[in-house]
Amino acid sequence: MPSAVCGGLAGSELRHRRGRGGPQAARAAVPEEAAEAAAQNPKRPAPGSRPSEAACRWVLLALVTLLAFATRFHRLDQPPHVCWDETHFGKMGSYYINRTFFFDVHPPLGKMLIGLAGYLSGYDGTFMFQKPGDRYEHHNYMGMRGFCAFLGSLLIPFAYLTVLELSKSLPAALLSAALLTFDTGCLTLSQYILLDPILMFFIMAAMLSMVKYNSCADRPFSAPWWFWLSLTGINLAGAIGVKFVGLFIILHVGWNTVSDLWRLFGDLSLSLVTVGKHLTACILCLIVLPLALYTAIYAVHFAVLNHSGPGDGFFSSAFQARLSGNTLHNASVPEYLAFGSVITVKNLRMAIGYLHSHRHLYPEGIGARQQQVTTYLHKDYNNLWIIKKQNTDSDPLDPSFPVEFVQHGDIIRLEHKETSRNLHSHYHEAPLTRKHYQVTGYGINGTGDSNDFWRIEVINRKFGNRIKVLRSRIRFIHLVTGCVLGSSGKALPKWGWEQLEVTCSPYLKETLSSIWNVEDHINPKLPNISLDVLQPSFPEILLESHMVMIRGNNGLKPKDNEFTSKPWHWPINYQGLRFSGVNDTDFRVYLLGNPVVWWLNLLSIALYLLSGSIIAVAVQRGVHLPAEVEGLSQVLLQGGGQLFLGWALHYFPFFLMGRVLYFHHYFPAMLFSSMLTGILWDTLLRLCACGLAASSLASGVHMGGVLSLLLGTAYSFYLFHPLAYGMVGPLAQDPRSPMAGLRWLESWDF
Amino acid sequence: MVGFLQRPIVVTADVNLNVVALTAAGLLSRLWRLAYPRAVVFDEVYYGQYLSFYMKRVFFLDGSGPPFGHMLLALGGYLGGFDGNFLWNRIGAEYSSNVPVWSLRLLPALAGALSVPMAYQILWELRFSHCAAMGAALLMLIENALVTQARLMLLESLLIFFNLLAVLSYLKFSNAQHRPFSPGWWLWLTLTGVACSCAVGIKYMGVFTYLLVLAVATVHTWQLVGDRALSHVCVLGHVVARAVALLVIPAATYLLFFYVHLTLLCRSGPHDQIMSSAFQASLEGGLARITQGQPLEVAFGSQVTLKSASGKPVPCWLHSHPSTYPLSYEDGRGSSHQQQVTCYPFKDVNNWWIVKDPGRHQLEVSSPPRPVRHGDVVQLVHGMTSRRLNTHDVAAPLNPHAQEVSCYIDYNISMPAQSLWRLNIVNRESDAEIWKTILSEVRLVHLNTSAVLKLSGAHLPDWGFRQLEVVGEKLSRGSHESTVWTVEEHRYGRSQEQKERELELHSPTHADISRNLSFMARFSELQWRMLTVRSDDSEHKYSSTPLDWVTLDTSIAYWLHPRTSAQIHLLGNVVIWASAGLATALYALLFCWYLLRRRRHVCELPEDSWLRWVLAGALCAGGWAVNYLPFFLMEKTLFLYHYLPALTFQILLLPVVLQHISEHLCRSQLHRSLFGALVVAWYSAACYVFHVLRPLTYGDTSLSPSDLQALRWKESWDILIRKH
């Protein structure tokens, strides 16, 4: 299948060689010189030249693809145990097969595809994926790994085609492909059940289709034009559907599209209607289509996961009622709240959770040293509260008393079931939101003081004065201070187990964070009635799950004293990630870029900036360049510029992120930087060759340079391949280890 | 020679009376009753403590910003003859008579007052009319928030002053392009650089304006590079001159601030602990007094205290005491039951260790002393208990993946002593470097297990007296700070007997040599600590979010009179605030509209007025954006006053937009007159609002509760109303 797709690409590419800004444009202006240049560089594809040129391109593409697949599928089954994050994503794939609902901070497409691959390859979803190192035994894991490796292999032909399109130079394309093939990091990352190969696949596919679309610019609204434009949109949806990092490629494509439209808009030969058509097409294919697909992914996600599972508590009561097996699914509970009921109280704002308390006190110096009250997203016994009348100590469940329903405006006490402390507030600052009052658990066995009294209020009394489970929206007003119970949504520090802060706010504004509903309701004296819970509409579910994901992502803060990876570590290949194995008897896999490739990339970025600015200044000063140099510098500025932009967009935003970062976050940027390296060295060598008069020597310099780079990377891969394919034996600190001489940086611990 | 006899010397002065009048008005509004209230107002309590440190020349570390701002405030104190004796502990505390309140507040007030005529100048240099320029200055004059902020001992008005100065001098410079390399050209160019670095030196936030000016300068330079009428040499000269003035000079000035700062603060103080031992030793008193005259080179037999380089969670010293690890921990794991080794944040006699040569029995220094070098194997003997530092394959109490570190007790079970450590000097220059007191950063690598001695940062439970856990890290990654130790106190051990040695350990160290750290080393350490010191990010009662600022949905109560209800409140002039926001939006809309039209070659604006419009937008709207938008990404506690620099730029944009409307969008003279009338009416409204809010700005009149209630125009304004 890949070769068929690629065939289509290359074929269409042949037909429109007069892409804007390419070296051909420059050459067309000075035909004689162009012919001469083509004669000087026999390897350079000239417009509509020999068919052998095209054949050569095909053969190389097939070769590159073959090599990519060979390296990626070699020893794919090793090690036969769970490695690193496979424990998460393999597990989530199994959830799809078992159709149980879960929560993850990433959008669902990647895990859905993993699940699908597993399903198709006969994996039954029964493996637990509990922790790294668990053996797979008889479970069929190769389908999922194979799928990831397949997508990971495709990155290389994609890079080949992208660079070919941007530079029109075979050696550049070959060099980029070789850099990626022989990078141990890319290889390792492609061999396991992870989201990264899928993400990188979509990013590269989007990049490729965008570049192809650009080269169709001279024939707008033709079939290939539409094809590549919509394919770009589809791949964008795929990228953001796997991880939110896909946003960067969207920005990249967005920037490209905007500048393209701006160019068209400035072209006075085009009527406004034509520009409008372009605009509409872009909006349709790059905004509407991806949005629709992205929504469709979620539609499938929610349709597939219809069983209750570990992610329920993160979502609202109404959401949970959709899941079969959840207590709220076709629930039958007492309908109206009565005194003595045991309840859980859930905040209406998304991703806040249940009112919670536990046997831990607020630490010294933070308000009164009383029991903590928080909100908690998981279902737990500590979420249960008993609703009691203000002053009666008698047991309301005593059968001799009549059932008394709670009414709007009643004064109540909420007693925590597990610890028998009352929900309490007083004039102390809340731990994080200093403008609010602290909320604590107070009293012994339900006897506290007057600060335990709350007035219960129903908002929009649709159901009369009584309080209907799940449906009534209620507020708790503190009687003494007049403040209203709410959650600020801020995570408490370690002492509060990173649960969310609960406060009593003196500002009585009606915000969702101070409105609650009753979710579970247990009262043996009342008959259980089957409840039709309000089914949330699809947009509501979509919005809610995004809120929960954003909150989850924000929650991934690095802990104190934890050794974290910093973005500046990444391009210098400072430190890898241990995928599997610690001791010298284990089968060890270590995610680390091939240092030769990575340091070459780093050098190339610096060189690119240098040569790019020299050329830019020269152009700005109006220096007259020979046509050949002019064409090469156009490739460098435009093709290289695209790739440099891609690298920068996939790298620099990480400096602004507060969440925990890992080494593998750099890999999308690394793809772009490898492609840039390919174009840069090819162009620089050609420029060198231009400077030399003798044509045989010139082509010799160019070919020699490219070949030595290719062989150098291949040799370094031979040296470093044990990192990816696995090592056994003494650690590299040990001089007896075969890797001992290769530990070039002290921070590498393989 | 005698030319003046033939022709008289004539001095013609061009005095723009507008500017004079504006300056006078600015001074009046900012300096009027400046010494009132004679009490600590809001953040004066924060800056005041640093001011006192300057007066007493005591070293401090403030992570909130570079030292130039603090120094300017201190200059006020110095001019007023302040001796630094005031306890800055509470907002609202009355100043004692030795505090020169007026001169402390003078510099910020002057900066605030001068911002008014500068607004005029900027608009004028942007080539807008006198009328627009007057408008900008008059708006600055009656903006309540700017007045409040400038009248107190706070940094924002200084920051705004230097921001405006940078923009103004850049404009003057770029308007002097017809006479390049003339003295005026150089003056304004250099002043731009200096003003930028002053702004950065007051608050890191100044960097945004600096970047904006740099960006504009880059665009202009790029156009210059494209000017083919100029020779290559000339272009090179232009580029180099700008690079020197806008990159090198600011960097040098910034370093100068730190140089002055470190020169002034030469005494040790409360923040010493955060700094490295070497830094502390460079201050008078404190550690320097202890370490003064210690032997430099650690030798076999030396008695040392080892300080952890990480300082997280607290700075501490390697410590041991006679208690042992409990037989089993709460979670059921067992320990070696050997003597505890911890890290202890206080000076203690139990922090002393003796460096011993494993091959010899002696614990005193031989003569001549045999220095310890990188790569040597040593044993560390605890001074008071004479037990050796040991680690073995037993899980550490709180971090089970790491090894326990103990002082070895021979229980005569099959657990041999493993007390050999290889010395690894991290910051050596060659392999044979000698271990030096204070200067050397060392790692101790265990010989048998290659574990590294590390401060884990966790607090031990009660059995470990809540001291910090020390572990042997098997899988050490690079040289993390927590695995690095430095020798702080050091002396050559002289006594062989244990009793004598204990006496020796209790006695203070002596002898004589002093040690100096280079300025750059001190600068880089101080700057790094300032950037990384973590302030507690808990929320403040008056903190707000950037979204609240545009709509003025927040306020800050600065001060309340102890008896009456007179109070100072940071509140903006609502009319200016709202219209500035509108003007920015309008500018953005118009700009996009013109841009699109020009792209289709429809140019309704003449070229020069378009360029003027773009430059004004780049500096004013751009200034607003760069000073405002980054706050959305910041995680620190934010206050309304953070918005004031952005607001200043927005105010400058307001007359730009108004003049543009009147010139280009009003089609007839009638429209223009009507529009003029509207503007006058609007300005009167702004004046009225200023007048109404004046009591809260100056805090000089006591208002009745009902008056205050009436002033509470927004629910979210926390105006303080006394309940009687």
UniProtKB/TrEMBL annotation, chain A:
Protein name per Swiss-Prot or TrEMBL: Dolichyl-phosphate-mannose--protein mannosyltransferase
Family to which the UniProt record says this protein belongs: Belongs to the glycosyltransferase 39 family.
Record organism: Pipistrellus nathusii (Nathusius' pipistrelle)
Primary location recorded for the protein, binned into one broad class: endoplasmic reticulum
Alphabetical list of InterPro entries matching this protein: ArnT-like_N, MIR_dom_sf, MIR_motif, PMT-like, PMT_4TMC
Subcellular localization: Endoplasmic reticulum membrane
Region (Disordered): 12-50
KW Transport (keyword) present: no
UniProtKB/TrEMBL annotation, chain B:
MIR domain: residues covered: 295-358, 369-426, 430-490
Protein's UniProt keywords contain Repeat: yes
Pathway: Protein modification; protein glycosylation
InterPro entries linked: ArnT-like_N, MIR_dom_sf, MIR_motif, PMT-like, PMT_4TMC
Principal location listed in the UniProt entry: endoplasmic reticulum
Keywords, alphabetical: Endoplasmic reticulum, Glycosyltransferase, Membrane, Repeat, Transferase, Transmembrane, Transmembrane helix
Gene3D superfamilies noted in UniProt: 2.80.10.50
Stretches of the chain forming a coiled coil according to its record: none
Membrane topology: Multi-pass membrane protein
Membrane spanning stretches: 58-79, 99-116, 128-147, 153-173, 185-202, 239-260, 574-596, 610-633, 639-661, 673-693
Compartments where located: Endoplasmic reticulum membrane
Top EC category: transferase
UniProt EC number: 2.4.1.109
Pfam families, A to Z: MIR, PMT, PMT_4TMC
Catalytic activity: a di-trans,poly-cis-dolichyl beta-D-mannosyl phosphate + L-threonyl-[protein] = 3-O-(alpha-D-mannosyl)-L-threonyl-[protein] + a di-trans,poly-cis-dolichyl phosphate + H(+); a di-trans,poly-cis-dolichyl beta-D-mannosyl phosphate + L-seryl-[protein] = 3-O-(alpha-D-mannosyl)-L-seryl-[protein] + a di-trans,poly-cis-dolichyl phosphate + H(+)
PANTHER family xrefs: DOLICHYL-PHOSPHATE-MANNOSE--PROTEIN MANNOSYLTRANSFERASE, PROTEIN O-MANNOSYL-TRANSFERASE 1
Assigned protein family: Belongs to the glycosyltransferase 39 family.
Described purpose of this protein according to its UniProt entry: Transfers mannose from Dol-P-mannose to Ser or Thr residues on proteins. Transfers mannosyl residues to the hydroxyl group of serine or threonine residues. Coexpression of both POMT1 and POMT2 is necessary for enzyme activity, expression of either POMT1 or POMT2 alone is insufficient. Essentially dedicated to O-mannosylation of alpha-DAG1 and few other proteins but not of cadherins and protocaherins.
The protein, known as: Dolichyl-phosphate-mannose--protein mannosyltransferase
